[in-house]
Amino acid sequence: MARDFNVRLMASAIFLAALSLPQPLFADLPPAAEAAPATEPAAFPRPLREKAAVIPERLVKGANAAMPSMIDGLDNPSTRRYIERYTTRSGKLWLNNIMANAQPYLAFIRREIDARNLPAELLYVPVIESGFVSDAKSSSGAAGLWQFMRNSMGPFDMKITDWMDERMDFWKATIGALEKLQENYHALGDWALALAAYNMGLGGVQRVLKQAGVKDYWKLSGQNHLKTETAVYMPKLLAVSHILTHPRQFGLPVLWTKDVQWTRIRAGKTVDLRLVAEYAGVDEKILINANRELFYTVTPPDENYHLKVRAEDAEKIAATLERSDIIMIKYHMYTVKSGDTLSTLAKYYGVTVAQIMEHNHGVQPKTLQIGMRLVIPAFKDVPPYPGVTVNDPFPADFTGVHVVQRGETLWSIARVYGIRPETLAIINDMDLQDTLSIGKALKAPIKE
Asked: Which of 227, 252, 277 is the last residue before a domain boundary?
């Protein structure tokens, strides 16, 4: 008993030490020698027989040995090479760090996979795609745990607005990715091909199948019909799945964590998550990390937007959102000055023009007036906008002509000439709120 306790204590210490090290990238791992000729590899370790154990209620194991495997290829030489690669010292540290990232999401993803009776290996697709970083972005434009591209998210209830990118919503992205994989499987009839299609697109795989006349992922890979990234996708996934499903066998600590139960609550209004956490008395970091799709930690003015919260925090957060005696978003109050435009204000305060307009009913760029009071969301901490400095001695030579172009206003034209819009309006016998017609000739200073 004492010896077993010491072994467990040492394993925990190793895991904690691993988490404190920088996360190594794929590039830091030993080369996989993917192009090497196939040789008869040495047999790799098989899982040890483990005694049956009673899992404590509401605890979930990081691996998923209880889920059925539906994908062949574990004995493929390329998969074996990746098993060897990922079980080096640096490979295991990399996997430890990734599984630390994964802890908030594992139980949710497992339940969604189990509910659909999908292959156990799908739990580890985010390891390959994003390293289980919910706001990961790739150089090709993919984003989120499951690395959705903009052109592939439409059918899966995800959108991008000025407020958020729902490819980084772990709830929606997980459901969308599993639905996409199911669609691929129904079209191709094979899980390895379905995963290949997740990497290179369903149409791309179907074209390869037609050209090669072969409907087997491993044969297509071995005969160089697939691009390199797709050819190594399944070996990587199967290797990671095998190692993490049997961590003890490969010298990895078994991490038992509390099963995080997530639920969703309709926000109903625009709120700052930092203030919600403060008033509700919940962990701010957990709440923000659970809603990484939000650009500003502020919910959009969308009645259908739902916050993702831990079940244990749901009652307190719901009660906080119902309160009418507190303001749960911070604003800058700004009085419009000469020379201001919505675009310059938006740039300074780190918001968009549309967001200023959403918070100031009836305000339009062309109807901005001096003295108007604006409320601007305080997404970042900045001092009040100082306004623009306009050198506007009344010009002696005002004999130039400016022909109004589409989209121009007295404000924008005045900025071009470095004068106040009031001056331009007076010279042309106009009011600041007058609408300009395209082609109208205005008196303007001679530009040197």
From this structure: 252
- 178 and 215 belong to one structural domain: yes
Same-domain status, 127 and 268: no
Write down the catalytic residue from 112, 129, 166, 293. 129
Highest-scoring range by mean pLDDT, 14-23, 172-181, 245-254, 414-423: 172-181
Identify whether 388 is part of a domain: no
Q: Does residue 335 share a domain with residue 318?
A: no
17: containing domain: 13-44+57-252
For 106, other C-beta atoms within 10 Å of its C-beta total 23
**Which residues, 6+ apart, have CB-to-CB distance to 99 below 8 Å?**
62, 132, 244, 255
Residue 61 lies in a domain: yes
Q: Is residue 50 one of the residues assigned to a domain?
A: no
Catalytic site residue 408?
Answer: no
400-403 and 373-377 as β-strands: parallel, antiparallel, unpaired? unpaired
Buried b / exposed e over 281-301, threshold 16 CB at 10 Å, is ebeeeebeebbbbbbbbbbbe
Whether pLDDT at 316 is above 60: yes
For residue 425, how far is the Cα from the chain centroid? 47
Name the pTM for this structure.
0.69
Residue 66, Cβ density class (10 Å: 0-12 exposed, 13-18 middle, ≥19 buried): exposed
One domain for residues 172 and 225: yes
Whether 393 is covered by a domain: the verdict is no
Q: pLDDT tens, 81-110?
A: 999 999 999 999 999 999 999 999 999 999
Count of domains forming the chain: 4
Please compute, for residue 265, the number of CA atoms within 13 A of its CA located in the half-sphere on the CB side: 23
What are the helix (H) ranges across 170-223? 170-188, 191-200, 202-212, 217-222
Rounded Cα–Cα distance for residues 427 and 444 (Å)? 8
Element (H, E) at 231: helix 228-231
For 394, half-sphere exposure in the C-beta direction (CA atoms, 13 angstrom radius) is 5
